[in-house]
Design goal:
Distance between the termini: 160 Å
CATH class of the largest domain: Alpha Beta
Radius of gyration: 52 Å
EC number: 3.4.21.53
Largest sheet: 7 strands, mixed
InterPro entries: AAA+_ATPase, ATPase_AAA_core, Lon_bac, Lon_bac/euk-typ, Lon_lid, Lon_proteolytic, Lon_Prtase, Lon_prtase_N
Number of domains: 6
Protein name: Lon protease
CATH architecture of the largest domain: 2-Layer Sandwich
Helix content: 40-55%
Number of helices: 28
Number of strands: 27
Structural class: alpha/beta
Organism: Mobilisporobacter senegalensis
Strand content: 15-25%
Catalytic activity: Hydrolysis of proteins in presence of ATP
Length: 771
């Protein structure tokens, strides 16, 4: 029979107490502590009921479940921090009928269930119910191996239905919501079904969880525990059909299908992709293999661009971009004509050699535009490591392809124009000889199968149009020089520089500095003065800087007054550029003894070299001053030896050199001077000083001398003749063997110069000495 009682109520958060359960829990709320203390004063009986929402601090009647448990308080311990630990034992199910009071604690009317309403089962029904529940329990124990064997055996040995159900609810780890369902099942049949459903759901949940864990364990490497959570998410995505991402290896295979390459190359790449699959993404080798595959896929194995074969258009572009340089333009057009006729063929390897600022690099860019080729510039200045050309072995940390392969990759086609800039400035040390590494690249017979250490697969470079640039051939390795076609880009004449300035440099600098065409004009005379007085160079680099300086000063005035029109002439030029910096030594005004003009080649073009000789009484010493190099010192001694050998012919006494000292001096002593082209000049000056015969004031000469008085050929003739013309000299003596070089020099330079070819020192003296 159900009985009604009034007693203190203890609301519970996140837990449900069942009849027969012995458990302890902590309480800290004042009302709850007061209810427990009140119960201890009476019969130690209280009503435990679970809150619907555990976050509510002071629950009302509607915040509590309607069914709870009457429990006996077994123990009460006060802990630090105003916390009370209570041990209770559940006794009966009971229903919360009515809350009488909330202060100072909850008191309510409770109706206890005594079990008198439970149906009576026959022995067969009881046996069937127990057997069914045991079957469910056994399945549960198989799936959940965390239940101890003692609990398993004790549960399986119970023969009473109600006791079995209550003990399952007490001993099986269930959430408080499931326990509340069991508590609210007053009728034994309902309670039996509730427990059976809950256990069956738990079995299904455990099986699914085990299935996921088994799949994750099979996929995850034992050393990669950090990735377990990520793999679980991935598997869940696959189960739901939401994971459609393609792996890196599959991406690479898709790219490989579209790659234009030979079968051998494709097989090699496919082999590397399969290797990537086998090592897994977590391996340290994975990044190396991935980088290697990406490099191979980016190379243009069979991809090429279509070249233009329109000669007129190519010639037009070359003429637009560059003034002069006829020999270079002619060679490029020859290449284009041959390529059009043969429909392919090996590309030539051209080396443009000339002083700085003569436009070698920009010529290559113009050629690429004229032929409609992809343009790649590779700067070799100061490169000392062979691996920069041939690449690093894949086994090294940070390995990468060489500059040639990288250039090809950046171009995206197998037939670009590749500029090898400053090829004369590559070096060699313990890391290898860079010049030797370039031999295979620049050999049309070998570069069809160029092997980069990183790529390992032979790459065809035969269709690349290589253009190299160099300032001097002297420092280049001879085998490397042998593989290239040399085209000299010599110094510009004054007229050429004026044209280049008008057509290219002035428009370029005005645009760069924001100057409109009508706001600035520079006269031809002013340009000539800039070239001769403010720059001393073979090219036009400094000329462009000076024009830029004028434009910047103009910009200031334009900013002050938009209507300003600046006109630069030779008179107001110093206002913008300051005082004139350079002045060429002009021809001597009068014929003098022991003074003669020589011609020299420098890295910035030609220059005149005045040689002075004095003869003084002494003991036969030869004095050389003016920062002369070893070659010039030897030339001076050879010249004096020649004069001594022919002294009788020129009425020089035999003991003259024993009683006189000869002092040879070249002014501008701080500037080092060397080179094999001043022999006849020094010999002429010495002969003049000894014989006291004057030398023509308007003569200049260049050439080397032998002990027998033969005149040897020299280089840099164009630059030297330019210097003679600038110095306003009339007669130039040139070695006979340089006669063929005169044919290649433009009439503009030769105009106003009288060129005489000499083979012997006797001819030189006949032209130079004035009787």
């Amino acid at each position: 029979m159900n009985e009604k009682q009034t007693m203190p109520v203890v609301p519970l958060r996140g837990m449900t107490i069942l009849p027969g359960m012995l458990i302890h829990f902590d309480i800290s709320r004042n009302r709850t502590i007061a209810a427990i203390e009140e119960a201890m004063k009476e019969d130690q009986i209280t009503f435990l009921v679970t809150q619907l929402n555990g976050e509510i601090e002071e629950p009302k009647e509607e915040d509590l479940y309607s069914v709870g448990t009457i429990a006996e308080i077994k123990q009460l311990i006060k802990l630090p921090g105003d916390i009370v630990r209570v041990m209770v034992q559940g006794m009966k199910r009971a229903r919360l009928e009515n809350v009488i009071s909330h202060e100072p604690f909850v008191i309510a009317d409770i109706t206890a269930y005594d079990g008198s309403d439970n149906p009576q089962y026959s022995p067969i029904e009881v046996k069937a119910m127990i057997s069914g529940m045991r079957d469910i329990l056994e399945q549960y124990f198989i799936e959940n191996n965390k239940i101890s064997k003692s609990v398993m055996s004790s549960l399986l040995s119970i023969n009473e239905v109600e006791e079995l159900i209550d003990q399952i609810a007490i001993n099986i780890p269930l959430g408080y919501e499931d326990k509340q369902k069991i508590l609210e099942a007053i009728d034994i049949t309902e309670r039996y079904n509730t427990v059976a459903v809950i256990l069956t759901d738990e079995i299904s949940l455990l099986r699914i969880k085990k299935d996921f864990q088994a799949k994750v364990k099979a996929k995850v490497d034992k050393n990669q525990k950090d990735y377990i959570l990520r793999e679980q998410l991935k598997l869940i995505g696959e189960e739901l059909g939401e994971n459609n991402t393609i792996s890196d290896a599959e991406n690479y295979l898709n790219q490989l299908k579209e790659l234009e390459a030979s079968q051998m190359v494709k097989e090699k790449i496919e082999k590397e992709i399969n290797h990537l699959k086998s090592i897994g993404s977590a391996s340290s080798e994975s990044a190396v293999v991935r980088g290697y595959i990406e490099t191979l896929l980016e190379l243009p194995w069979e991809r090429e661009s279509e070249d233009h074969d329109n000669l007129k258009n190519a010639a037009k572009i070359l003429n637009e971009d560059h003034y002069g340089l006829e020999k270079v333009k002619e060679r490029i057009l020859e290449f284009l004509a041959v390529r059009s006729l043969t429909k392919g063929g090996d590309s030539p390897i051209i080396c443009l050699v000339g002083p700085p600022g003569t436009g070698k690099t920009s010529i290559a860019r113009s050629v690429a535009r004229a032929l409609d080729k992809e343009y790649v510039r590779i700067s070799l200045g100061g490169v000392r490591d062979e691996a920069e050309i041939r690449g690093h072995r894949k086994t090294y940390v940070g390995a990468m392809p060489g500059r040639i392969i990288n250039g090809l990759k950046n171009a995206g086609v197998k037939n670009p124009l590749m500029l090898l800039d400053e090829v004369d400035k590559v070096g060699s040390d313990h890391r290898g000889d860079t010049s030797s590494a370039l031999l295979e690249v620049l050999d049309s017979e070998q570069n069809k199968k160029f092997v980069d250490h990183y790529v390992e697969i032979p790459v065809d470079l035969s269709q690349v149009l290589f253009i190299a640039t160099a300032n001097s051939l002297q420092t280049m390795a001879k085998p490397l020089l042998d593989r290239m076609e040399i085209i000299e880009v010599s110094s510009y004449t004054l007229n050429e520089k004026v044209h280049i300035a008008k057509d290219h440099l002035i428009p370029k600098q005005m645009k760069k500095n924001g100057i409109a065409k009508k706001q600035l004009s520079i006269s031809t005379k002013a340009l000539e003065l800039i070239i001769s007085g403010y720059t001393r160079e073979a090219g036009v680099r400094n000329l462009e800087r000076k024009i830029g300086e004028i434009c910047r000063k103009t910009a200031i005035k334009v900013l002050e007054d938009q209507n300003t029109k600046i006109k630069i002439n030779e008179k107001n030029l110093p206002v913008y550029l300051g005082k004139i910096k350079y002045s060429f030594e002009e021809a001597n005004k009068e014929d003098e003894v022991g003074i003669v003009k020589g011609l020299a080649w420098t890295s910035v073009g030609g220059d005149t070299l005045q040689i002075e000789v004095n003869v003084m009484p002494g003991k036969g010493r030869i004095e050389l001053t003016g920062q002369l190099g070893d070659v010039m010192k030897e030339s001076a001694r050879a010249g004096i030896s020649y004069i001594r050998s022919v002294g009788e012919k020129y009425h020089i006494k035999n003991d003259y050199f024993d009683k006189h000292d000869v002092h040879i001096h070249i002014p501008e002593g701080a500037v080092p001077k060397d080179g094999p082209s001043a022999g006849i000049t020094m010999a002429t000056a010495v002969m003049s000083a000894i014989t006291d015969k004057k030398i023509r004031a308007d003569i200049a000469m260049t050439g080397e001398i032998t002990l027998r008085g033969k005149v040897l050929p020299i280089g840099g003739l164009k630059e030297k003749l330019l210097a003679a013309k600038t110095a306003k000299l009339k007669l130039v003596l040139v070695p006979k063997k340089n006669e063929k070089d005169i044919e290649e020099i433009s009439g503009e330079i030769l105009e106003g110069l009288e060129i005489r070819f000499v083979e012997t020192m006797e001819e030189v003296l006949n032209f130079a000495l004035v009787e």
